[in-house]
């Protein structure tokens, strides 16, 4: 019995020794994950958003354009040729027939004291009136300047005055007069409240001359200066594609035989000169080709003879 008790004690003692053999708490040598490192990870999620990515654009960087500059006036319309007649109802004749286009640059003074250039373009639908005298005849054209739907309160007036020289059977225009109204569109800031008058009249010059029963024709542009009345300025005039006839004695509206201006004559002379030069060059080329061909054939014949 004592033997069994002693054997049990030995077994218990050996069991206690085994529990001490187990590694002590050195299993904690593997340090658990540092909690503070996870806490720093959490703090990174609480970083405030970078406000530089949401900066509002400053309204002072792109200021709105100012409207201090004056608006640019519209350009004048392109001149278009019109056709007009002056009819004498009592004599039942058409004394004047005309076809042309015209444009004018009219100097004027602005409210700031500076000089400006107004534009006046003859309207192809201008109203024609006139007189059919024995020695003097007139053609007067009236039209209203219209721009951006605004019509000038007064019309522009262009007048041609013709006279004839019975001894030479020649007629011509002795004067051209323009009454230009300074509208708000083509004469911006004009100080002149009423018409600007320009007159071209020279006793030593004859404008648009032709023999009686013939018409004056000039396709080329005719440029002239018209002195203004009481200003000292010169109005610049331009007439293009003109054909006109005065002192007619028939009831129809057809032009008589045309007498061309010097500008058209100079232009027409260029064509035959150019054609003549081209024909002369062609003759020279043909002659050279003939001489070259003849020399080659002669050399071949000499070669055959030598063989």
Gist?
This protein is α+β, with helices and mostly antiparallel strands and 307 residues long. 24% of the residues lie in helices and 35% in strands.
How would you sum up this structure, described in words?
The chain is of the alpha+beta class. Helices cover 24% and strands 35% of the residues. The protein contains three helices and 15 strands. The strands form three sheets. Strands 1, 2, 3, 12, 13, 14 and 15 form a seven-stranded mixed β-sheet that branches. Strands 4, 5, 8, 9, 10 and 11 form a six-stranded antiparallel β-sheet that branches. The relative contact order is 0.11. Mean pLDDT is 79; it is low at 13-49.
Helix count, DSSP H or I runs of 4 or more residues = 3
Outline type: extended
The chain-level structural class is alpha+beta
Uncertain spans, ≥5 residues at pLDDT below 50? Answer: 13-49
Q: What is the chain-wise order of helices and strands?
A: HHEEEEEEEEEEEEEEEH
Mean pLDDT over all positions: 79
> What is the beta-strand fraction?
35-45%
Radius of gyration: 52 Å
* Overall number of strands: 15
Largest sheet: 7 strands, mixed
| Cα end-to-end separation | 160 Å
Range of helix content: 10-25%
Give the SSE layout.
Layout: H1 2-21, H2 35-44, E1 82-88, E2 93-109, E3 115-121, E4 127-132, E5 136-143, E6 146-147, E7 150-151, E8 156-165, E9 170-180, E10 196-201, E11 207-211, E12 214-218, E13 222-227, E14 234-245, E15 257-260, H3 262-306
Parallel strand pairs: 12-15
Antiparallel strand pairs: 1-2, 2-3, 2-14, 4-5, 5-8, 6-7, 8-9, 9-10, 9-11, 12-14, 13-14
